[in-house]
Amino acid sequence: MKSLRILAATAAVIGLAACNSDPKTPPPSPSGKSASLRSMEQVAIAAHKCWFASKDPAFKKYQMANELNNFGGTPRFLLVPAKQYGARPLLVVQAQGNSSQVQVFGPLMSEALGARIGSDINRWRSGDASCGAAA
């Protein structure tokens, strides 16, 4: 008898939850990933491959801090000084919500390397994962 009451209460709670038809966020893609996460994944993979795995000398002084799975809905990665992982970011590359638009900002963007970073990010965001500069 007690288990029937628990079952009925559980069914009632599930039924009430199903009645809420006002979603607060857009439904995720069939893969379960937001547009921002999908976009940032392709950009982050290309950045790691082209800037760090290739040992590009222009990025030798930096390391990548990947924060694609953060809980704020803003997948991003940071470039920080190579031996100071917890230091203030020199570059932030992020997307927000259900947008595939990628934002790039930080002190590195106003240095000589900024033009290359912008060009690389735009190319990767469009789906071209090639490395633009020779390492």
Summarize the structure in words:
The protein is built from 3 helices and 4 strands, in the order ααββββα. It has a domain at 35-124. It is of the alpha+beta class and 135 residues long. The chain is globular, with a radius of gyration of 21 Å. Strands 1-2-3-4 form a 4-stranded antiparallel beta sheet, with helices on one face. It has helices at 2-19, 35-53, 113-125, and strands spanning 62-67, 76-81, 91-94, 103-105. Strand 3 and strand 4 (103-105) form a beta hairpin.
Search tags:
14% strand, 4 strands, 37% helix, 3 helices, four-stranded antiparallel β-sheet, alpha+beta, globular, 135 residues, disordered N terminus
Helix content: 25-40%
Subunit arrangement of the protein: single chain
User: Quick one: how many beta strands?
Assistant: 4
Rg over CA atoms, rounded to whole Å, is 21 Å
Q: What is the straight-line distance between the termini? A: 72 Å
Tell me, what's the shape? globular
In short:
The protein is an alpha+beta fold and 135 residues long.
Give the SSE layout.
Layout: H1 2-19, H2 35-53, E1 62-67, E2 76-81, E3 91-94, E4 103-105, H3 113-125
Antiparallel strand pairs: 1-2, 2-3, 3-4
Helix pairs in contact: 2-3
